[in-house]
Amino acid sequence: MLTKSLVAIVSFAALALLDAAPRVQAQEPLRAQLAQYAPLPPPPLMQRPRTRIEVGPPPLLYRRCAVRYVLQPRPSGTVLFPEQHCWWVRGY
Predict the structure, then answer these.
(1) Which residues pair with 35 in a beta bridge?
(2) What SS3 class is residue 9?
(3) Distance between CA atoms of 71 and 78, rounded to whole angstroms?
(4) Which of 61, 72, 71, 69 is nearest to 85 (CA)?
(5) What pLDDT digit, counting tens, does each position of 56-81 carry?
(6) 21-61 pLDDT, tens digit each
(7) Secondary structure E strands in 1-92
(8) In terms of Cα–Cα distance, which of 51, 82, 55 is closest to 66?
């Protein structure tokens, strides 16, 4: 009984190997067709226009700011808090 099952397993394995060979050969024409549709090379990088720098007279007024830290009492405790003060100054 053991020999019959062993012979059956070997014969099924041989049939599977013989059946796989034509499938590999059938893929060759498909690979040749796919080679025609190879990905195209990337397009060339577009050059950006040069940045234009304009130099003109300074503004008549501009804003100047001073920043400092202040201790503020809060219900949870004293907190260090940033404070900013700004004013307008004439340009030179």
Answers:
(1) none
(2) helix
(3) 6
(4) 69
(5) 777 788 899 999 999 999 999 999 99
(6) 555 555 567 777 777 777 777 788 888 888 888 887 777 88
(7) 61-74, 77-90
(8) 82
